[in-house]
Specification:
The protein is an alpha+beta fold and about 600 residues long. It contains 16 helices and 21 strands.
């Protein structure tokens, strides 16, 4: 087949459609109804509630090409982008999913067949890693024809996947490709260097991890896979760097034309061009999904990305706004696969230009301040630029760390990296809180519950009444065995029809009734991904941990919330028609 990136993307979808999968569009980069995520960072994000058993779909096999972004939180590799062959902020993840349908044998067969028969990768250069205890996967890979000496058993770190400390999890099997001795590195998987690189991760979701760490088999084992399109394209085209593939070639050519340099001529310039190429994709896709530069949350991440790209433009000799003009290249190259780029092209260019102009002004304003800081430090006999000063330059004026470090080196001044890290961690904490990403997992009682209690099963899509067993009671943020009349409490159940607040819809209200008492529920939340918490007051008698209760959702408040939620969607649609496609919400 053709190794063109657009053909590879289409071939992946078509292959799995032929295997009975439903092609599901990419979810937005802003996670829908999931406050635990800053950005969509994996193909399974939009199916998370399906895997948890809280939601059903009209299909049990799915295939997606999911747009993802990793530039915040634990996935913060921003400073590595441009310096390595593989790091990216924005990327596309290819994935196929089974929701209790097929399992290991078909997942292994599909993965092997697509890479070797459809894409045409050499079977002799393939490696596979499996979890050390997964004898079934070992047998299935041998059955498909892979030599036993190309199957490597690994520990949990590399080949066991879990969504959280508790909940669905299972072993995984990774497909690797040997790029040959011309590439530095070990000739086996998970070694040093890039010679043998991972291409595709097949996750066999077959257990539920309880609070004590025990693994219980799931009634319907599932499949979740992920493969980066950027890496697949480079390997398929025989390129040793993602940036050498046709996925990035148009962008690098456009950047080179704007800067008057040629990619491949000089490493320092190449690095800046790689940074700009990667960041242009992130900027365009983030803005098309409604994120705009700001000083907090998602907007703060976008601002950092955009300003880092602008700074590297200056290193190439570009002193005026230029990124806004290059966003059109992203739209032209990727608009066929992602139509939202074409609809938002004008908004993206305009917003990018405005941010560039502001950054150039602050850069020009900040350079004298940096010079003054260094002059005062030297005059005082100090050999270190304080972390507070570093953070002021970085956060207030948008100075990239490489600019600060370079200026300090020229003056023989060291950097107070410890003080800077403390200042930036404090800022991240503030950003999480204002952006809504600081969840109740910081409460000690809920941390204890998350480790002790399994997932709450939600059954409220098709029923408003059920029964459930009290898993835990919290009073004044303490775990208690019993709650009496008049006391405000939080109740965690094993099963519930109560919808937890999320996706723009208020949580359910209703009544929990037991043999000796009842609880009026006023609010339902999901403070951690695995728990649904019912907040209310004991109206009569008492309730106890371990007691079986009758659960009744208030039909009227549920319907009112649903109508309000729907009305919000209608208002949002009208605003998009009136103001343009850049109007976004976090609704699902």
């Amino acid at each position: 087949m053709s190794q063109n990136v657009n053909d590879l993307r289409k071939a992946f979808i078509q292959y799995f459609e032929q295997q009975g999968h439903r092609a599901v569009p990419s979810a937005p980069l802003i996670p829908q109804a999931d406050p635990t995520l800053l950005f969509t960072n994996a193909g399974m994000n939009q199916f998370k509630r399906v895997f948890l058993g809280e939601e059903t779909r009209a299909y049990n096999r799915a295939v997606t090409v999911q747009k993802c972004l990793r530039a915040g939180g634990k996935h913060n590799d921003l400073e590595n982008v441009g310096y390595t062959r593989r790091h990216h902020t924005f990327f596309e993840m290819l994935g196929n999913f089974s929701f209790g349908d097929y399992f290991k044998e078909d997942a292994i067969r599909f993965g092997w067949e697509f890479l070797t028969s459809v894409v045409g990768l050499s079977k002799e250069r393939m490696w596979v890693t499996i979890f050390r205890e997964d004898d079934e996967a070992d047998r299935l890979w041998r059955k498909i024809g892979l030599s036993p000496n190309r199957i490597v058993r690994c520990d949990e770190k590399d080949n066991f996947w879990q969504m959280a400390d508790t909940g669905p999890c299972g072993p995984c099997s990774e497909l690797h490709f040997d790029q040959g001795p011309a590439v530095p590195g070990d000739a086996t998987p998970n070694g040093e260097g890039d010679r043998v690189i991972e291409i595709w991760n097949l996750v066999f979701m077959q257990f539920n991890r309880a609070g004590a760490g025990t693994l219980n088999p799931l009634p319907k084992p599932s499949i979740d896979t992920g493969m980066g399109l950027e890496r697949l394209t480079a390997v398929a085209q025989g390129k040793l760097s993602n940036y050498d593939s046709d996925l990035f070639a148009p962008l690098l050519a456009a950047i080179g034309g704007r800067a008057g340099v040629q990619y491949g001529a000089q490493e320092q310039a190449d690095r800046s061009m790689r940074v700009i190429a990667d960041h242009l994709r992130a900027i365009t896709f983030l803005m098309a999904d409604g994120v705009l530069p700001s000083n907090e949350g998602r907007g703060y991440v976008l601002r950092r990305i955009l300003r880092r790209a602008a700074r590297h433009g200056r290193l190439l000799g570009i002193t005026e706004p230029f990124l806004h003009g290059l966003t059109a290249t992203v739209v032209a190259h990727m608009g066929e696969a992602y139509h939202e780029l074409r609809a938002a092209a004008g908004t993206v260019a305009e917003a990018t230009r405005g941010e560039e102009e502001r950054f150039i002004a602050t850069l020009d304003q900040g350079l004298p301040i940096l010079t003054d800081m260094l002059t005062k430090a030297r005059a005082a006999g100090q050999q270190t630029l304080s972390g507070t000063d570093m953070f002021k330059l970085y956060d207030t004026y948008g100075f990239p760390m490489d600019l600060i470090a370079e200026a300090c080196r020229e003056q023989g001044i060291r950097l107070d990296e410890t003080g800077f890290e403390a200042a930036i961690e404090e800022q991240r904490t503030r950003a999480r809180k204002t952006g809504g990403f600081e969840t109740e997992t910081t409460r000690p009682a809920l941390r204890e519950l998350a480790a002790r209690v399994g997932s709450t099963a939600f059954v409220g899509y098709d029923q408003l009444n059920s029964e459930g067993v009290v898993q835990a009671l919290l009073k004044n943020d303490r775990l208690v065995k019993e709650a009496r009349e008049g006391e405000e409490i939080e109740v965690v159940l094993d099963v519930t029809p109560f919808y937890a607040e999320g996706g723009g819809q208020a949580g359910d209200q209703g009544l929990l009734t037991g043999t000796d008492g009842s609880v009026e529920i006023r609010e339902t939340t999901r403070p951690v991904p695995t728990l649904i918490v019912h907040k209310g007051v004991v109206r009569s008698g008492s309730v106890r941990e371990g007691e079986r209760l009758k659960l009744s959702v208030n039909r009227r408040t549920r319907q009112d919330a649903a109508r309000n939620h729907t009305a919000t969607h209608l208002v949002h649609a009208a605003l998009r028609d009136l103001l343009g496609p850049h109007v976004k919400t976090d609704l699902s």
